[in-house]
Amino acid sequence: MAGGRSPPCSACIRRSRHDASPCRSTRDLPSESVMTTSVRPLLVALLVATGCTSMSADSRGAAQLAGLEKIQHVIVIYQENWSFDSLYGRFPGADGLANASERIRQVKQDGTPYTTLPQPLDTSKQPPVPDPRFPANLPVAPYDAAPYVPADQKTGDIVNLALQEVRQINGGRMDGFVAWSENGGLAMSYYDATNLPVGRLAQQYTLADHFFHSAFGGSLFNHWWLICACTPVWPNAPANVVLQIDERGVLVRRGSVTPDGFVVHTVSSSSRPYPTSSRDPAQRLPLQTMPTIGDRLTEKSISWAWYSEGWNDAVAGRPDPLFQFHHQPFNYFAPYAEGTAARVEHLRDIDDFFAALRTGNVPAVAFVKPIGAHNEHPGYADLLRGQEYVATLVKAVQDSAVWK
After folding, report:
1. CA 213, CA 27: separation in Å to the nearest integer?
2. Most buried by CB count within 10 Å: which residue of 27, 135, 185, 357?
3. Residue/partner pairs of 92-96 with CB below 8 Å, 24 or more apart
């Protein structure tokens, strides 16, 4: 979404991951790509505050790059666990579900085709049980979940683990999303968000329909890739957090760290805040030292901050039940550890963001991370409430001096 009242420049929405062009994001996978009806990564809305003017296709290139100099603020709002097609696959004019017909076939783990989808599960129950809101015989095809679970209600959650996603992609055949999910019947579902709050914003501005996540798996892994484009390492990690793979490449035991020391799933930081359940320091990831986008911005004297909803309460030891500790990527890096000046300057609460909007002191680059109840994550949040919160954030920006 581009700022100001003039026609939007090429403001891109990045899914925390690989970008190959100014307004179309692609990824080069090792023999595979993402089936967006099933993989539910993270959604990122990007606001660019500028006085840009429209330009013809013939006047792009150098003139377009020169126009970037007019951008004064970049604000990234980072939502959770929806692919492009699972929200915007029906968006008019988008490269979405209408072009996905050849990738519908799904096979079981033994290679035989599904004839119907498994009934989606209610993951709020332990163990999960069939969700009676859904039929038990859905066809093997993308389907609209709204007639069964309106957007203001919670669906179950689905798996988003690194090795499972590799299995789902299945060497580019894209036929394992049902079989290798713990909630396979939900994996083919979508909502038409065209007329939901963020969809209405997209109608006014720019929607990036070739937008994919950059790292297999879940939230923490992709938060790291958003700020670092790196995979953290944990040499000699405790044996109980290391996943096990047999000689066939089949996952034998789940874990957060690969046998060669790369962290691919949720772990706690050595720097607070971290969950109260994380009592053993040996079970927390040592602070990382790879350069981040924050470091690079600071090197160029460009102001920036990560604004997290619920941050102050979590730091004070009274976290909201839906505060997600692993959605705070800078907290895993040594320059932003407890007691550092950089932490005080750059890791802020959402209240600080609204205060900065009121005073006009918003940094040049701002990342905004909503709390669990507002981040659209299936399972513990509903879609509509999160979209409404994004619209509230965008309106606050539009009503501020930043947008003028």
Report:
1. 8
2. 185
3. 92/194, 94/207, 94/209, 95/209, 95/210, 96/209
pLDDT of residue 199: 98
In angstroms, the CA 336 to CA 342 distance is 6
Q: What pLDDT was estimated at residue 6? A: 29
Alpha carbon distance, N-terminus to C-terminus of the chain: 15
Q: Return the pLDDT at 60.
A: 63
- Which of 305, 382, 387 lies closest to 348 in space, CA to CA? 305
Cα–Cα distance between 6 and 2 in angstroms, integer? 9
Divide the 404 residues of the chain into consecutive groups of 10 and give the mean pLDDT of each group: 32 30 31 33 61 49 76 96 95 92 83 97 97 97 98 95 92 94 96 98 95 90 97 97 89 93 97 96 98 99 99 98 98 98 99 98 98 98 99 98 90
Kindly state whether residues 202 and 335 are assigned to the same domain.
Answer: yes
397 and 295 both lie in a single domain: yes
For 136-161, letters b (16+ CB in 10 Å) and e give: eebebebbebeebbebeebbbbbbbb
As to burial, measured by CB atoms within 10 angstroms (0-12 exposed, 13-18 middle, 19+ buried), residue 295 is middle
Domain with 82, as residue range(s), is 71-91+193-207+286-403
What sign has the CA pseudo-torsion 307, 313, 318, 321?
negative
Residue 78 CB neighbours (<10 A): 25
Residue length of the chain: 404
What is the C-alpha separation between 31 and 41, in angstroms, rounded?
19
pLDDT given for residue 391 in this prediction? 98
Instruction: Based on the fold, state whether residues 292 and 184 are members of the same structural domain.
Output: no
Whole-model pTM: value is 0.86
- State the Cα–Cα distance between residues 223 and 362, nearest whole angstrom: 22
